[in-house]
Write a structure and sequence with these properties.
50% of the residues lie in helices and 12% in strands. It is built from 25 helices and 14 strands. The strands form 5 sheets. A 5-stranded parallel sheet has the order 2-3-4-1-5, covered by helices on one side. A 3-stranded mixed sheet has the order 11-12-14. The chain has a two-stranded parallel ribbon with strand order 6-7.
Length: 512
């Protein structure tokens, strides 16, 4: 039977665990010196080795031929059974996502009271997704974690330790905590190179780079993605195979859009995005890829290098080094960061992407027009702050003191007032509203509504209608914030109406 790469190449010894040497060396030393704690909390992103190290720890504690330095042999019957996840009376793995209640915790506590099956062995309980345990379940485990039976070890693994702190703060002081690192693309590529060599599979460096980026710091995901690509049966890991299997957009498409932005061909944005839509791309994945390319272009523009792209793309970015300024690239990246939180939830992803790219293509002219309009409204110079830089429209020329003293320069007493006209309000647009949401929140802050400000800081506009209705949504469900926004709708509308025309109604979309 075929064994997935993520399982086949799961480490069997502390020394084989990639990147997490600060954890593996400590655990190995504790075993060698007989100073094993009764409880551990392993924290970190998914796929970085938490459960693997928990199993290696259990193997080392119960190995039939363990070495004096604390390493398990990885070959004896006990090690093989634990490594493969087979049934073992002394090593019990449980998933807190499906066994999270107080009854499950009580059963675990009762089972822990029984001694190991043989003298010199340890009972090890590995609880994955530990943050899913309820407050009552943690309370049921609290006493046994404080005074555990002899030769019983608890290992909790979690991607969200903050939830454990909130649900059961006293537990944290009873466990030794280890924080796992994200695995860098370079380390992922190195591990994949070793695995593919062992499998006798050829590979392209560009293909490894693509998988390393897609894995996003997870070694398990990297191996699973490699499995997925190799299942296509081409016999070699190529960049084309990776793009086809993972649905990635070719780098040429990103470079084409970069050229379009550099040449300010805003009118060509719509057919370009339409072509991408016709090919069935995932727009959320495309937006992340666009951000990666802009980041690489920023690094090159600043005089650095872009190590996570192909040599062909690197050469193309160097050729465009003088066509973009660092402040403009920072503003583009800032705009993507602002739109990303609600982009995946939007039903108009293509429209949002098109308007974003049009803004990039018209970036300088748009900023100059906005500054000019604000300057007219303020009656002089205006400071416009963007996420990356501040630009200043020069103050209007003022008469010199000598000219001001002449009768011709003095205003007529009965003449018209010199009060400047108010700046025209912009048409209601979702992208511009999101961009200026911080200004809207500041305006509400000036009204003396701190609770409403707190709620708005955790919300974003997600839609606007032709009738002037603005729909906002909180990042996470919060009944207090929901009621605050609903009751403060008039103040929010007043703040928005100071910048936009045609605002009529505010609607709160509740988070599912």
């Amino acid at each position: 039977m075929y064994l997935a790469l993520a399982r086949k190449y799961r480490p069997k010894r502390f020394a084989d665990v990639a990147v997490q040497s600060h954890v593996s060396n400590t655990l190995k030393g504790a075993i060698a010196r007989g100073r094993v704690a009764h409880g551990y909390l392993l924290c970190g992103p998914r796929g970085v080795g938490k459960t693997t190290l928990a199993r290696v720890l259990a193997m080392a504690l119960n190995c039939e031929r363990g070495s004096p330095d604390g390493e398990p042999c990885g070959e004896c019957a006990s090690c093989t059974r634990i490594w493969s996840g087979s049934e073992s009376l002394d090593v019990i793995e449980t998933d807190a996502a499906s066994n999270r209640g107080v009854d499950d915790a009580r059963e675990l506590r009762e089972r822990a009271m029984y001694a190991p099956t043989a003298e010199g062995r340890f009972k090890v309980y590995i609880v994955d997704e530990a943050h899913m345990l309820t407050r009552e379940a943690w309370n049921a485990l609290l006493k046994i974690l404080e005074e555990p039976p002899p030769r019983v070890i608890f290992v909790f693994a979690t991607t969200d330790p903050q939830r454990i702190t909130q649900a059961a703060a006293p537990v944290m002081s009873r466990l030794q905590r280890f924080d796992f690192k994200r695995i860098s693309p370079a380390e992922v590529r190195e591990r994949l190179t070793t695995v593919l060599a062992a499998e006798g599979v050829g590979r392209d460096d560009d293909a490894l780079a693509m998988i390393a980026r897609a894995a996003d710091g997870s070694m398990r995901d990297a191996l699973s993605l490699t499995d997925q690509v190799l299942s296509m049966g081409e016999g070699r890991l190529t960049a084309a195979a990776v793009r086809g299997a993972l649905g990635l957009v070719p780098e040429d498409e990103y470079l084409g859009l970069l050229e379009l932005i550099a040449e300010r061909r805003a009118v060509d944005v719509f057919p370009a995005v339409g072509r991408l839509a016709g090919s069935g791309i995932d727009f959320a994945v495309f937006l992340a890829g666009l951000a990666d390319l802009l980041r690489a272009q920023l690094a090159v523009t600043l005089g650095g290098d872009a190590p996570d792209v192909s040599e062909q793309t690197r050469a193309a970015l160097r050729a465009r080094r003088d066509r973009f300024t660092a402040p403009d690239l920072l503003r583009m990246l800032g705009a993507i960061a602002e739109i990303e939180p609600f982009y995946r939830k939007s039903s108009q992803q293509q429209l949002l992407l098109e308007t974003l790219l049009v803004r990039f293509a018209l970036l300088d002219r748009t900023v100059e027009l906005e500054d000019l309009l604000r300057g007219i409204g303020d009656g002089g110079g205006v400071q416009t702050t963007t996420p990356s830089t501040s630009r200043r429209v020069p103050d209007a020329p003022r008469p010199s003191p000598r000219r001001a003293e002449t009768p011709s320069a003095a205003p007529r007493a009965d003449g018209p007032s010199a009060t400047p006209k108010p700046a025209p309000r912009a048409a209601l647009d979702l992208n511009v509203l999101c961009e200026r949401w911080g200004d809207i929140v500041d305006r509400v802050r000036s009204m003396g509504r701190p609770m409403l400000v707190s709620a708005l800081e955790h919300a974003l506009p997600v839609a606007v209608s032709a009738q002037g209705t603005i729909t906002v949504q909180l990042e996470q469900p919060n009944e207090i914030f929901e009621k605050t926004i609903e009751s403060g709708a008039p103040e929010v509308l007043s703040a928005v109406a100071g910048t936009f025309d045609g605002v009529t109604k505010l609607v709160l979309r509740r988070v599912e």
